[in-house]
Design goal:
There is one protein chain. The chain is mainly beta. It has one domain: Neuraminidase (6 Propeller), CATH 2.120.10. The strands form five sheets. The protein has a five-stranded antiparallel β-sheet, with no helix packed on it. A hairpin with a 2-residue loop joins strand 9 and strand 10. The radius of gyration is 18 Å and the shape is globular.
């Protein structure tokens, strides 16, 4: 067998196999009690293919399907969440700094780092109809986009002032909000972070804000008030940028590749919490 083919076979086997996380710990930050919605020590890790080394955003589509973007190409990748392998792709634009995506009412919205949004609708045969919505303000950098009811929310990574991060809404037919809909603020207990991803958890209605800088996962009210925090310890979270939930609250976090391949980590919701909601 040729060396290049052997390397490919070895990668395919590794990519298709989940492994346990190496280390993970939870820091109790704000609220008392165990608050064990998620036990990060039970996380499972999948390696992603080299083209997704710069993966920046993910969205659960249902079944075994997930969509992802990376921050260099104007392309949506469709993954199998059990294998981590790419099933298909959909091109929507030129190369650029794309940071997140969501799936809403049968179409994708992709976020660029300057706040611009791209509405991407598949029209079949790998082709897309694309509409661009330009963010009206300058000086902001964004990495987080999530769905809240009938609106999209963009959470800034900076430019809100020290320890504060402004969030803006977008609705089709209305446009972007002129003023922030809320401001996420650091507290005495939770500080030294910058948002790199965000998603509403359908299981508890809370806003989860992923922070690669600071290695934190914040649990917030829908108005951006920090209520609790998970620490993201160990080598499995070198650059956590993407976050998504299934309908029953299973958590996915994607990491850009640093000294290895990009990864997708699946963390089940605590069974006692799940049962309590049924």
């Amino acid at each position: 067998m040729k060396p290049t083919l052997l390397i490919l076979v070895v990668f395919m086997i590794a990519a298709c196999t989940e492994r346990p996380v190496k280390t993970a710990s939870r820091k109790k930050a704000v609220k008392a009690g165990d608050g064990r919605d998620y036990d990060f020590s039970k996380g499972k890790v999948l390696s992603l293919q080299p083209v997704l080394k710069e993966v920046s955003g993910i969205a659960v589509l249902g079944g075994l399907s997930m969509a992802a973007v990376e921050d260099e190409r104007g392309r949506i990748y469709f993954l199998n969440v059990k294998t981590g392998l790419i099933d298909s792709t959909l091109d929507f634009g030129k190369n650029g700094d794309y940071e997140d995506l969501v799936f809403m009412d049968g179409v994708f919205f992709v976020l660029k780092s300057n706040g611009d949004l791209f509405r991407v609708a598949s029209v079949g045969r790998g082709e897309a109809r694309v509409d661009k919505f330009s963010f009206p303000a300058k000086g902001f950098e964004f990495e987080s986009l999530y769905v809240d009811g009938r609106r999209l929310v963009l959470l800034a990574k900076d430019a809100g002032g020290p320890g504060s991060f402004d969030a803006f809404s977008f609705e089709e037919g209305v446009g972007f909000s002129a003023e922030p809909v809320y401001t996420l603020r650091a507290t005495d207990q939770v500080k030294n972070f910058r948002p790199s991803g965000a998603a509403l958890n359908p299981a508890d209605g809370k806003l989860y804000v992923l922070c690669s800088d600071g290695r934190k996962l914040l649990v917030c009210s829908r108005e951006g008030v920090i209520e609790d925090m998970y620490g993201l310890a160990g080598a499995d979270y070198p650059q956590a940028e993407g976050i998504a939930f299934t309908g029953d609250g299973e958590l996915y976090i994607s990491n850009e590749g640093k000294n290895g391949p990009a990864t997708l980590i699946r963390i089940p919701r605590n069974q006692s919490k799940t049962a309590a909601n049924e």
